[in-house]
């Protein structure tokens, strides 16, 4: 078991190399945007990308998850790849064409002006290119070719960042520059992944669809569409609601601070990339459930440390002068810092949700994900509509935290019913108490920077003692 967990950790670090670099480079664009874009412009582009995230789920139609599941034990993996790839190619072309033609009605639907509809034309191109990239990326994950995966992701992000800087700071092309930079980044990924695609497509030129297999794959995949949409509603529905209730300027302020959550999401994304192939590979091991329980404890220890570190230190970092009068986020956006702890807490809960995904995937009862994520979406929408009119963007922060917490709790209950795992509850409780005590000491000490650093330095030492303690 220990050997398997170490391998999961190594693969998490490899995937994390690209994920961390990608997220950090993208995060570097946040101060760039806050200094080159006024809050209203940033609000418009944030709303467009919220729509792109939702559209992406429909364009992909869960075929990446279907490929991961069916190719893991299929005798003919090439057939599975080709069916998935051609499927998303056709789906992406049709839906991308519709979005291109109906850009103005779509602009009104998401809450921006029809004059900004041209941004959705560019978004349609991004969506089409991204779905073509997804199946090759998933193949690399399944085959555990983590360094290839990391290299392509890193190159794409570098192109994206450089494109943003060139188009906005040098050519002064405005907010459309952000979409053009994404197009070039997606093209770079597709070019680098072309050897993977070519190696699969060249194997059988007489390929024809296996409709029985296709039906099985679609049956497995389709629940990921509504569940994926519902899941994204948790993190993106706040933008359209804020646009309608508070205006683009408040969306811009909220989005700049929401992006701080990227550091918590890094941990979750790194883990998720390696976790799903890991538990599929080890599901038949005799000690599989013990391994999965141990993984949750390790995740909770690391993620809680990152969570506390960001909550303690990020406000000081944001307001400190990095280069003279330059700040991490322009002062015009500082009034939104109150949402940061809620967003970070929400992503921590999402990490727990990812851990509990083992139940529905291994039992092939993925349809429950629809109902669980619909619950999360309902909590998000209800909380936003209830709180935003009264406390503004802080209400959106509460919505993120409560919706992810509801999803994690619901998925835990389901997993324990269909695939019971005896998690290390005493250790998890000890970690929760340690986190609460750490926060309390920080508050009593007046949030001194020295105290924060000492507490954060001691935290992993205590967690390691908790994790090493033998079960009674």
> Unreliable segments (pLDDT under 50, ≥5 consecutive)?
none
Radius of gyration: 22 Å
Helices and strands, in order, run as HHHHHHHHHHHHHHHHHHHH
Described by the principal axes of the CA atoms, the overall outline is: globular
- What is the percent of helical residues? over 70%
Could you give the count of β-strands? Answer: 0
Oligomer: single chain
Class from helix and strand fractions: mainly alpha
For the biggest sheet, the summary is: none
Q: How much strand?
A: under 5%
Provide the domain count: 1
**End-to-end span in angstroms?**
19 Å
pLDDT averaged residue by residue: 82
Q: How many individual helices?
A: 20
Please describe what this structure looks like.
With 472 residues, the protein is mainly α. The chain has one domain. The protein has 20 helices and no strands. It has helices spanning 2-36, 39-60, 63-71, 77-101, 103-110, 118-142, 146-170, 176-201, 211-221, 224-236, 238-246, 248-258, 262-281, 288-319, 340-356, 358-362, 368-391, 393-418, 425-444, 449-468. Helix 3 (63-71) crosses helix 9. 47% of the residues are buried. The model has no long low-confidence stretch (mean pLDDT 82).
Write a concise synopsis of the structure shown.
The protein is mainly α and 472 residues long. The protein has helices at residues 2-36, 39-60, 63-71, 77-101, 103-110, 118-142, 146-170, 176-201, 211-221, 224-236, 238-246, 248-258, 262-281, 288-319, 340-356, 358-362, 368-391, 393-418, 425-444, 449-468. It has one domain (2-423).
Q: Which helices and strands, and how do they pair?
A:
Layout: H1 2-36, H2 39-60, H3 63-71, H4 77-101, H5 103-110, H6 118-142, H7 146-170, H8 176-201, H9 211-221, H10 224-236, H11 238-246, H12 248-258, H13 262-281, H14 288-319, H15 340-356, H16 358-362, H17 368-391, H18 393-418, H19 425-444, H20 449-468
């Amino acid at each position: 078991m220990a050997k398997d967990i170490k391998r999961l950790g190594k693969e998490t670090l490899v995937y994390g190399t690209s994920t961390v670099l990608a997220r950090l480079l993208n995060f570097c664009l946040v101060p760039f945007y806050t200094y080159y874009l006024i809050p209203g412009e940033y609000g418009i582009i944030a709303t467009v990308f919220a729509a792109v995230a939702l559209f992406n789920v429909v364009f992909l139609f869960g075929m990446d998850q279907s490929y991961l599941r069916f190719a893991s034990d299929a005798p003919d993996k090439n057939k599975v790849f080709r069916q998935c790839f051609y499927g998303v190619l056709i789906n992406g072309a049709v839906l991308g064409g519709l979005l291109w033609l109906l850009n103005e009605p779509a602009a009104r639907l998401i809450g921006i002006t029809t004059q900004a509809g041209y941004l959705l034309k560019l978004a349609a191109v991004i969506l089409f290119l991204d779905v073509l990239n997804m199946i090759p990326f998933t193949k690399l994950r399944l085959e555990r070719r983590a360094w290839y995966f990391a290299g392509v992701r890193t190159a794409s992000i570098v192109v994206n960042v450089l494109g943003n800087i060139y188009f906005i700071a040098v050519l002064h092309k405005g907010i459309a520059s952000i979409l053009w930079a994404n197009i070039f980044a997606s093209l770079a990924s597709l070019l680098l992944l072309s050897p993977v695609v070519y190696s699969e497509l060249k194997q059988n030129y007489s390929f024809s669809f296996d409709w029985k297999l296709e039906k099985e794959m679609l049956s497995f995949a389709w629940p990921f569409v509504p569940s994926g949409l519902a899941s994204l509603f948790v993190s993106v529905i706040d933008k359209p609601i804020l646009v309608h209730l508070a205006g683009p300027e408040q969306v811009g302020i909220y989005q700049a601070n929401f992006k701080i959550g990227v550091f918590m999401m890094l941990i979750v994304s790194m883990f998720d990339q390696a976790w799903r192939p890991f538990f599929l590979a080890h599901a038949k091991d005799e000690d599989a459930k013990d391994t999965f329980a141990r993984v949750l404890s390790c995740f909770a220890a690391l993620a809680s440390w990152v969570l506390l570190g960001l909550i303690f230190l990020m406000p000081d970092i944001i307001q400190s002068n990095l280069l003279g009068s330059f700040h991490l986020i322009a002062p015009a956006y500082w009034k939104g810092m109150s949402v940061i702890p809620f967003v970070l807490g929400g992503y921590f809960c999402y990490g727990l949700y990812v851990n509990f995904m083992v139940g529905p995937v291994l039992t092939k009862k993925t349809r429950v994900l629809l109902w669980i994520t619909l619950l999360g979406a309902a909590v998000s929408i209800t909380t936003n509509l209830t709180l935003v009119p009264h406390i503004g963007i802080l209400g959106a922060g509460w919505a993120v935290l409560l919706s992810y917490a509801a999803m994690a709790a619901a998925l835990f209950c389901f997993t324990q019913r269909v695939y019971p795992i005896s998690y290390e509850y005493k250790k998890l409780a000890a970690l929760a108490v340690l986190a609460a005590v750490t926060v309390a000491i920080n508050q009593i000490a007046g949030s001194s920077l020295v105290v924060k650093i000492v507490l954060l330095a001691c935290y992993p030492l205590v967690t390691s003692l908790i994790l090493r303690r033998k079960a009674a």
